[in-house]
Write a structure and sequence with these properties.
The structure is a single chain. With 213 residues, the protein is mainly α. It has a domain of 67 residues. The radius of gyration is 65 Å and the shape is flat. The N and C termini lie far apart (132 Å).
C-alpha cells in the first residue's frame, strides 16, 4: 500500500486579504485625528495663564487656613510663655523657702552648740576606741597572713623533698636492675676454670665406680 498524501495547500495571506476587499473600520481613522480642530496660540496662552492664577475659591480657602493656623500658633505660644512664667515663679519661691530653712538651721545650730560640745567629746572617745580596735584587727589579719604564707612555704618544701626522694628511689631501683643484669651476663659468659673442671671429672669417676659396683 502507498503512503497517504498529508500535504496541505499553501495560502498567501496578503492575496487572501486583497481578495476579501476593503475592511469596514469601526471608529476614527488617522486622517480624522490629524484633521481635528486645534486651538490657536493665543488661546493656549490664555489657558496657561488661567492655570497659573488658579481658581479663586482655592485661593480663598488657603488664606482662611493660614489665618486659622496663625491664631492656633499664637494661642500655643501664649500657653508656653505662661507656663514658663509660672515655673520661674515656683523656682523663686523654692529658693526663698530654702534660704529661710537655712537660716532656721543656723539659728538652731547656734543654740545647740553647747550640747554638741559635750557630745563631740563622747564621739572623739568612741572614735579613738574604734581606731584601736581597727589596729588590733589589722595586726591579727597581718599575723594570720604571715602564718598562711609560712604554711604554704613549708608545704612547698615538703613537696620538693618528697619529689627528690622519689627520684632517688627510682634511680636506685634502675641501678640495682642494671647490676643484676650485669651479674647474670657475667655468670653466663664466664669461662670454666681448671678447678671446676677437675671437680667435674672427680664427680664423673665416682658415678662410674658406683655403677660398676
Amino acid at each position: 500500500m502507498g503512503k497517504r498524501d498529508n500535504r496541505v495547500a499553501y495560502m498567501n495571506p496578503i492575496a487572501m486579504a486583497r481578495s476579501r476587499g476593503p475592511v469596514q473600520s469601526s471608529g476614527p481613522t488617522i486622517q480624522d485625528y490629524l484633521n481635528r480642530p486645534r486651538p490657536t496660540w493665543e488661546e493656549v496662552k490664555e489657558q496657561l495663564e488661567k492655570k497659573k492664577k488658579g481658581s479663586k475659591a482655592l485661593a480663598e480657602f488657603e488664606e482662611k487656613m493660614n489665618e486659622n493656623w496663625k491664631k492656633e500658633l499664637e494661642k500655643h505660644r501664649e500657653k508656653l510663655l505662661s507656663g514658663s512664667e509660672t515655673s520661674s515663679k515656683k523656682r523663686q519661691r523654692k529658693k526663698k523657702e530654702k534660704k529661710k530653712s537655712g537660716r532656721v538651721k543656723y539659728s538652731s545650730s547656734s543654740s545647740s552648740s553647747s550640747d554638741s560640745s559635750s557630745s563631740s567629746s563622747d564621739s572623739e572617745d568612741e572614735d579613738k576606741k574604734q581606731g584601736k580596735r581597727k589596729k588590733k584587727k589589722k595586726n591579727r589579719s597581718h599575723k594570720s597572713s604571715e602564718s598562711s604564707m609560712s604554711e604554704t612555704e613549708s608545704d612547698s618544701k615538703d613537696s620538693l623533698k618528697k619529689k627528690k626522694k622519689s627520684k632517688d628511689a627510682s634511680e636506685k631501683e634502675k641501678n640495682s636492675k642494671i647490676r643484676i643484669k650485669e651479674n647474670k651476663e657475667d655468670v653466663i659468659y664466664k669461662p670454666l676454670s681448671s678447678e671446676s673442671l677437675s671437680e667435674s671429672d672427680y664427680i664423673e669417676e665416682m658415678y662410674h665406680e658406683k655403677e660398676k659396683e
